[in-house]
Amino acid sequence: MDEVTRIPVGGERPYDVLVGRDLLDPPPRLLPGATRVAVLHAPPLKELAETLGERVRAVGVDPLLIEVPDAEEGKRIDVAAACWDRLGEAGFTRTDAVVGVGGGAVTDLAGFVAACWLRGVRWVPVATSLLGMVDAAVGGKTGVNTAAGKNLVGAFHPPAGVICDLATLDSLPPADLAAGMAEVVKCGFIADPVILDLVERDPAAALDPTGPVTRELIERAILVKADVVSGDLRESGVREVLNYGHTLAHAIEKVEGYRWRHGHAVSVGLVYAATLARLAGRLDAATAARHRTVVAALGLPTSYPADAWPRLLAAMRVDKKARGSKLRFVVLDGLARPAILEGPDDELLHAAYREISR
Ligand SMILES: NC(=O)c1ccc[n+]([C@@H]2O[C@H](COP(=O)([O-])OP(=O)(O)OC[C@H]3O[C@@H](n4cnc5c(N)ncnc54)[C@H](O)[C@@H]3O)[C@@H](O)[C@H]2O)c1
Ligand SMILES: O=C(O)C(=O)C[C@@H](O)[C@H](O)[C@H](O)COP(=O)(O)O
Ligand SMILES: [Zn+2]
User: What Pfam families does the record tag this protein with (predicted)?
Assistant: First the structure.
């Protein structure tokens, strides 16, 4: 086994994030006392889920493999309900557990299934996408999408541990690898500018899943997220900074019917949030411009159609950071100085959008 990095996440139910290669044995070890483990996966990760099922069986635990639709198609309440039916048929009790094997969509669903079953059983995400490793699997936010918007139904339910097996990235499509980098770049702007220096120095190295730069970026981003969520699981304060770029991003995803990659939407959302902060007099022009150049260097999108604005604005109004009719945006007052922009008026919001739209 390759060297394993262990990143602790604090809070009322502390756990570790394990980063390394060939890490399929830890999941059953993280769930002592379980007699059954449901392994949720989408079709692309079937083989890995089966291997995991065999490892689970080898330690005397019954695996229940549950295949769900891929990507955002699986992040639906009817899919969660079908999973609960399977757990019921198999007689899952409070000592049993759920493992989610896949990208952020599957681990968000698996965590939500675990959060609601018997009002909360243990779960472990085995993150297989870059975005899942650096973000979705860490921090205990679980949930599904609804017609009203992205992630509007969910629960805070920390996992028993998180597995980031870097070997799984070898099969991840390059577009999904780049999409995950949008969240890494987000962490660079809100907390760890070394991330930005590393990406700018060699964007190709950042996108090579077998190389040391990608691993360093992954570990740095996990450290940022672990630090934030350790002190604020339920997003009552500082955790909002992890939503940098997400107010517009989630609106884009909704307008696209959840067919755009989350990371691509976040990339556009970061450029938008930086532009908004500059126009609001909060952020200097150079740092704002740096958002566009960093994400563009990774081949990520930086703009969205101009005529979508009315639909985007309507979608942003149900953002979870909004309070009443007041929108709230995470912005930067400088590099690694995140803050909140309270209730910007519609003209300012539109002016920023005009600068990034095409
Ligand atoms: N809970 C959180 O805190 C949090 C944080 C960030 C994002 N998210 C959510 O995560 C989701 C996005 O996650 P994502 O970018 O991983 O997308 P995804 O889960 O849709 O995965 C992208 C694609 O890659 C495939 N895939 C994953 N791992 C693979 C591998 N190793 N080899 C081959 N194919 C693989 C998937 O099957 C899918 O087709 C969104 O729903 C987003 O809202 C949640
Ligand atoms: O963990 C968080 O908190 C985040 O905001 C991380 C985001 O990258 C992630 O996309 C999250 O799912 C968004 O949360 P939401 O509460 O805005 O749905
Ligand atoms: Zn995100």
Answer: DHQ_synthase, DHQS_C
